[in-house]
Write a structure and sequence with these properties.
745 residues, 14-stranded parallel beta sheet, Immunoglobulin-like, 40% strand, 5 helices, 13-stranded parallel beta sheet, mainly beta, globular
């Protein structure tokens, strides 16, 4: 169509007027909501700007912490930090009016949060909810570390309204009868999927009677193994508040024991009070960039074409209780997405009891170049990405520690160029990437993945925990009963378990269904227990029919020769898998195949036996050097593909321009100390230390890396995990503090 001149002029006029009508609004902590919102007369709250913004407008936010939930009111608007300022939108509110409670504990009024429980921060540091045994660290998922707040215990199915629990820890005998009555008991294990929770009805030494919250504790829970057995547990209770830095909430009050006998009225103490930092409901084309979100998450409900870039989202969701154990898009918290074409890019997401992303529905939502770690402290079916959207794109992200899954999906999803490691820290029978045709209601139904691709990923270094002398089933790809997908050019290593060797590359099902067109091409797999596994279940075959495998291919893969294959049920469906141009290498061949496998460099060496040994697979291995494609994930002579995010958590921490002064609590009261050696290599020492001394080490961005209480003078401080560079060390006691810089070589 050709526009006539007068119509063209009209169109230009309309577009120009729209552009000229777009406004910039400014928000400052020193502003006033009665202002005009200009740079010289900014608003005080982001919500005030959101209320007056129209399509095309931008809200520039100046440095500071904004304790509010921002509800977006219009389409096509932008919220952005001003000129690189460090902006935080917090779901936590300041707690004031502290009064003495007892034994060094203080109390303040707190009417609760939008979620069932809260989180507490003192001087910006996440503090531990009071529990027995104490969690003396910031690590939330190391069940077998005696300092991280779990103890061995045994539960029984029993009968009646309560269940018997016995802890294997004589320290409990020092507490009076019913000391823990009314508290929350939580146990990880022995079920391979569930985490039991209940209310303590009574306690006597090491023995508890617990009224179950979780449904599957009431009976032997079928496929979850019997409901009794050994695991790891803890008790949440106000009576457990006995250590500096702990807190608890109860009966509209919050309790806290500050460190070093400090008065909490002199500290900045915050408690989580809101679920959302930004709420986007039925709005489109909203952009949020350069914002740090703390103690809250984002809700994108029926929202499309929204972009969240260069943001951090930390401490998303607090402790929670659930009756069931399965995947949830609402109960487990996280960034909630329903809608189409929404993108999260260049973000950091970490530290939560629940999910990181809960994508409930919509089409082609994207998570790209994000670092997602320390997710799923509750265990259960938590995931870094819980997906029910169609054609979701997961691209170039790094997925770190998780209580269970990295990615779990119920729809077609593409997972490309990601680095995934340290999943399954609190469970068994799952894996880094899990898609399944579901439970009994879906037996006999094929999960059609409609051409999904899982490619150019690194999946590595994951195991499971010891349930009463049993470790089993951690996988790179748990694709049960799934059809029409391709897994190609992935690097898999160190997926193993001890006690029961059960680390697996791929599990196919078929779970009473027909698995069709499942293709595994050009993967490199090292240091695993099992290569391919199938389970042709027969116990209900008369109802649902037998499973089958059709056009399932394992081609051009380079595989650890110690890995086994496994078939359960009859007939042996492994015989129906097409295996071609495969090489299983033994340990003696590793040095001749790879450049440096001990350092996880799996590029092929010149002259390696895997070169030119592959098949040409159109669209997957037809771009090759030499006479034929190589086996494995890297083609010799071509640049290697890369996986993982360039985003770091530190990039979102506030830069300290004068670190020597900025982190001093009271610069008028200083102590004298020396550190040596400087530069340091593996250790550093402080010449000052006594029973009230705390030593902290910070990065130049202000991130705390070391916190040692009751430091003894001249005791070594380990630096082996530190990168080379400049660091800040602070030494303090109840009245004095001092800092210095040092260099790690």
């Amino acid at each position: 169509m050709i526009l006539r001149p007068k119509y063209f002029i009209l169109l230009v006029s309309i577009l120009t007027s729209l552009h000229l009508s777009a406004k910039d609004y400014y928000v400052s902590k020193d502003g006033n909501n009665d202002n005009s919102g200009t740079k010289d007369a900014p608003f005080k709250t982001i919500q005030k700007a959101a209320n007056v913004m129209s399509s095309g407008d931008t809200c520039f936010i100046m440095e500071g912490v904004y304790r509010e939930q921002v509800t977006v009111k219009n389409n096509n608007v932008t919220f952005q930090n001003y000129d690189g300022a460090h902006v935080t939108v917090s779901g936590a509110d300041l707690i004031t009016g502290w009064t003495a409670y007892k034994d060094g504990i203080y109390q303040a009024d707190f009417d609760g949060a939008e979620t069932e429980y809260s989180m507490l921060f003192a001087e910006g540091k996440h503090e531990q909810m009071a529990r027995w045994p104490d969690n003396e660290t910031s690590e939330m998922m190391e069940l077998q570390n005696p300092k991280t707040g779990y103890a061995r215990c045994n539960n029984k199915v029993g009968g009646g309204p309560t269940r018997d629990v016995t802890f294997f820890d004589d320290r409990l005998n020092s507490f009076p009868v019913n000391h823990w009555e009314g508290g929350i008991f939580r146990q990880a294990g022995p079920s391979i999927r569930n985490a039991r929770m209940g209310i303590v009805a009574s306690s006597n030494g090491t023995d508890l009677k617990v009224t179950p919250i979780t449904d599957l504790w009431l009976t032997a829970d079928g496929g979850n193994k019997p409901g009794s057995g050994n695991g790891f547990g803890f008790i949440l209770h106000l009576n457990a508040l006995d250590r500096e830095g702990e807190w608890f909430e109860q009966d509209d009050k919050i309790y806290y024991m500050p460190r070093d006998g400090q008065d909490p009225n002199d500290l900045e103490i915050e408690a989580k009070n809101r679920r959302w930092a930004f709420v986007i409901r039925n709005q489109n084309n909203v952009t949020i960039t350069g914002i740090n979100i703390k103690a809250a998450a984002l809700e994108l409900k029926n929202a499309s074409n929204c972009n969240v870039t260069k943001c951090s989202v930390k401490y998303l969701f607090p402790f929670l209780v659930r009756k069931g154990f399965g995947a949830s898009y609402t109960e487990l918290g996280g960034i909630f997405i329903s809608g189409n074409n929404n993108t999260f890019k260049d973000c950091y997401v970490g530290h939560t009891w629940g999910n990181a992303f809960s994508i409930q529905d919509g089409n082609r939502n994207t998570v790209e170049n994000c670092l997602i770690e320390d997710i799923g402290w509750i265990g259960l079916f938590t995931a870094s990405v819980q997906n029910r959207g169609f054609e979701t794109q997961i691209i170039r992200n790094t997925f770190g520690s998780n209580g269970r899954f990295h990615i779990r999906s119920d729809k077609k999803i593409d997972i490309l160029n990601n680095d995934l490691f340290d999943c399954m820290k609190m469970g068994q029978d799952a894996g880094s990437i899990q898609i399944t045709n579901g439970g009994r209601a879906n037996y006999g139904k094929t999960f059609d993945m409609e051409g999904a691709q899982f490619a150019y990923n690194k999946i590595h270094d994951s195991s499971t925990i010891d349930w009463d002398g049993n470790k089993q089933f951690v996988l790179a790809f748990y694709l049960e009963g799934c059809s029409n997908y391709t897994v190609h050019h992935n690097l898999i290593y160190n997926i193993k378990t001890d006690i029961v060797p059960d680390g697996t590359f791929a599990y196919l099902g078929p779970r009473y269904t027909s698995v069709v067109n499942a293709h595994y091409y050009n993967n490199t797999i090292d240091n695993i227990d099992f290569y391919m596994r199938v389970w042709n279940r027969t116990e209900e075959a008369a109802t649902f029919g037998n499973g089958s495998l059709t056009n399932v291919r394992f081609w051009n893969n380079l595989v650890d020769g110690t890995a086994n294959d496994s078939n359960l049920g009859r007939p042996n469906l492994l015989m129906d898998i097409s295996v071609m141009n495969e090489m299983k290498f033994n340990r003696a061949e590793v040095n001749g195949l790879f450049r440096n496998a001990t350092r996880n460099n799996y590029q092929l060496k010149a002259g390696a036996a895997a070169i030119d040994q592959g098949r040409i697979i159109p669209g997957f291995s037809d771009d090759f050097e030499g006479a034929a494609p190589d086996l494995g994930c890297y083609e010799f002579g071509q640049p290697i593909w890369t996986a993982g995010s360039t985003t770091t958590e530190e990039s979102f921490d506030k830069v300290i321009t004068d670190p020597t002064l900025s982190i001093i609590d009271n610069e008028k009261k200083k102590l004298t100390f020396n550190i040596f050696p400087n530069p340091a290599k593996d250790q550093i020492f402080s010449t000052f230390g006594d029973t009230k001394t705390t030593v902290q080490i910070f990065s130049l961005t202000g991130k705390e890396l070391v916190n040692i209480t009751n430091y003894t003078a001249n005791a070594p401080i380990n630096l082996q995990n530190f990168s080379a560079g400049l660091y800040i060390i602070r030494v303090s006691n109840k009245t004095k503090t001092a800092t210095a810089n040092f260099i790690k070589n």
